[in-house]
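Hi R.,

Here's the chain you asked about this morning:
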Amino acid sequence: MNTSTYIDVPDAFAASYGAHGAEARDWIADLPRLGGDFLDRWELRPDGPAAHGMASLVLPVLQADGTPAVLKLQQLREETAGTATGLRAWGGNGIVRLLDHDQDSGTQLLERLDAARPLSSVADDDAAMQILAELMARLTSVPAPGDLRQLSDIAAAMLDQVPQAVPTLRDPGEQRLVRTCASAVAELAGEPGNRLLHWDLHYDNVLAAEREPWLAIDPEPLAGDPGFEVLPALDNRWEEVEATGDVTRAVLRRFDLLTEVLGLDRRRAVGWTLGRVLQNALWDIEDAKATLEPAQVAIATALLRRRA
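And here is the predicted structure, written out as tokens:
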């Protein structure tokens, strides 16, 4: 479509996202035109400055009838290819509503939530964790559509990477920990589950709303066991966990609350949470890091004590 409409892309987003390589820079270069195309196509008017996370640009807009919404633009990747499928399956139950979607570009029109009030703004951690757990239980109660990426495939790929990846870690104790996480995944790989997972549900991916008090945003959907959802909740506000003076106790308290609300078998949930630690470790190794994130080590250590 030929259009003279363009959107402004924040310099900070262009610089940070463009650092991911040539394809990312090409996408950023085309983003002003792409956003303008969708303003015209969907008859939208900008309604404030654009905001951005690490991988997407979100522009507040008004629809033709004056209804507030947001235009979300993100590069199409494996992790986000199933976003519209997941949002349609959830149908707004505990999560932001999808109003329109372009499959070729991954562009989404979403209901407007209160971006100034994430769940992380709730000072009482117990109250915030309870809200998060209840949303997670609702989202994972939905069967996954058949065309989403599968936890079984992710688990198999991780296990394939372990033999080459582990020796690059500097600390023998961390090498043992990653192998232990891989063993936990191998035990569960034959029963990967079939629920619809958000994959990245933490305090800053939950916003206040009018339709419900709180709604989840930014899913990267996959089909799998709800135990694979737990880790992002465990390392929320990690400095507060450390400030308790007993990290293991604080981690297990959160873990017990989450698994109780979700009705999970705790041994399986430990195994799949170790799987998320493994996933993060492999990504760190891929980024040429020779040590693991301390929070990941602490969480895995706490859960292994519970499993023992």
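One quick note: The mean pLDDT is 95.

Cheers,
M.
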